């Protein structure tokens, strides 16, 4: 995993280079067993996440992410979740980056370049969101997004990742992600990895979505087939 950690350093350090890095980036590596590993990092305004998974089976490997900021060519990030090393949660780390100004980026001194997937388009829902409510028995139950227990969803123009975690206990509850589309009021997720259930990889889930007063109302059925109605608020 040292190679993957080094490459994450490349990408997490690149997250802060102005709006030009907003969107999704990816790369692949081969591990010591000959397995091809895919990694995708998504940058939004102030928040980022990265996930590694088996490129063939979608088996989840690890994820981490949090806030980022840039000063010159030095990016500083503060992880909020980190499945490989929880001791890194809440601690800032800075990295020097290199960017070709278009669709390639890397850590200074590294040979491997990450390739841009999208620049935050065309997704209506691109950005970082926190679950802020659910509808149960016909009633909206609001959730305090400032509490340590969070469910965050980060979307680029074409890719999504959700993460459930606790910043206080450093507990990780689960994650999943892949590609998505928003067409005619329908939000469709195509699952490429899911830490809780690999059997869901390859499935497509369609939901109805609507933006009301800046909040994302999301309804349909969960990956288990249960009905759901969620409300997501933009993360500031």
Briefly, what is this?
The protein is mainly beta and 236 residues long. It has one helix at 2-14; strands at 23-30, 36-43, 47-54, 60-71, 74-82, 93-99, 104-107, 114-118, 127-136, 139-142, 149-155, 159-166, 172-183, 186-194, 204-212, 215-221, 227-234.
Distance between the termini: 32 Å
Low-pLDDT stretches are 2-19
The radius of gyration over CA amounts to: 17 Å
Q: Helix coverage percent of residues? A: under 10%
Briefly note the structural class of the backbone. mainly beta
What fraction of the residues are assigned to beta strands by DSSP? over 45%
What does this structure look like?
- The strands form two sheets. The protein has an eight-stranded antiparallel β-barrel with strand order 1-2-3-4-5-6-7-8. An eight-stranded antiparallel beta barrel has the order 9-11-12-13-14-15-16-17.
- It is globular.
- The chain has 236 residues and is mainly beta.
- The longest helix has 13 residues, at 2-14.
- The chain folds into two domains: 2-118, Lipocalin (Beta Barrel); 127-234, Uncharacterised protein PF14869 family, DUF4488 (Lipocalin, Beta Barrel).
- It has one helix at residues 2-14, and strands at residues 23-30, 36-43, 47-54, 60-71, 74-82, 93-99, 104-107, 114-118, 127-136, 139-142, 149-155, 159-166, 172-183, 186-194, 204-212, 215-221, 227-234.
- Mean pLDDT is 89; it is low at 2-19.
- The chain is built from one helix and 17 strands.
- Helix content is 6%, strand content 57%.
């Amino acid at each position: 995993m040292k190679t993957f950690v080094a490459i994450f350093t490349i990408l997490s350090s690149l997250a802060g280079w102005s709006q030009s890095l907003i969107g999704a980036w990816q790369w692949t590596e081969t591990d010591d067993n000959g397995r091809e590993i895919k990694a995708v990092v998504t940058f939004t305004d102030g928040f980022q996440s990265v996930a590694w998974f088996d490129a063939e089976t979608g088996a989840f490997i690890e994820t981490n992410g949090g806030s980022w900021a840039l000063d010159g060519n030095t990016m500083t990030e503060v992880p909020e979740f980190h499945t490989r090393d929880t001791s890194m949660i809440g601690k800032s780390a800075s990295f020097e980056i290199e960017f070709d100004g278009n669709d390639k980026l890397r850590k200074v001194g590294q040979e491997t370049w990450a390739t841009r997937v999208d620049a935050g388009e065309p997704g209506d829902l691109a950005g970082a969101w926190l679950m802020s409510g659910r509808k149960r028995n016909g009633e909206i139950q609001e959730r305090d997004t400032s509490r340590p227990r969070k469910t965050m969803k980060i979307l680029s123009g074409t890719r999504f990742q959700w993460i459930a975690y606790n910043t206080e206990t450093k507990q990780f509850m689960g994650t999943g992600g892949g590609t998505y589309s928003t067409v005619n009021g329908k939000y469709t997720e195509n699952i490429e990895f899911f830490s809780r259930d690999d059997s869901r990889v390859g499935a497509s889930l369609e939901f109805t979505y609507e933006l009301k007063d800046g909040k994302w109302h999301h309804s349909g059925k969960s990956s288990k087939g249960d009905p759901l109605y969620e409300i997501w608020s933009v993360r500031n």
